[in-house]
Amino acid sequence: MKWLADMGVSPRTVAWLRERGEEALHLREEGLQRAKDPAILKKARTEGRILLTMDLDFGYLLAVSGQHLPSVVLFRLADERPDSVNARLAEVLAQRGADLEAGAIVTVTENALRVRRLPIRRESP
Prior knowledge:
This protein is of the alpha/beta class. It contains 4 helices and 6 strands.
């Protein structure tokens, strides 16, 4: 899998992914630390990357876009230190890799992984 880490995600998580043999980039490495959210989503989609973020805006933008990619891993952790993020990300990889490849938003908390398959369809009243 290919990954793109948003600014809230530590470069240590990118290094951890690379140690596992994954292709991972951090926005800072690309000089995109000030990029707007839509441009970040477009980069992830164009390059076939899964976005790692702590920013709720990405889930909203994907929901209203109707797009089925890019997948997003959204961390909602009280402990955002890289070791905690990496441990939970290892669980995401083990349990939800197929969902991410197909198109999904995986919300990660300390106790759960919630998966919303993309595209998110608006429910009729």
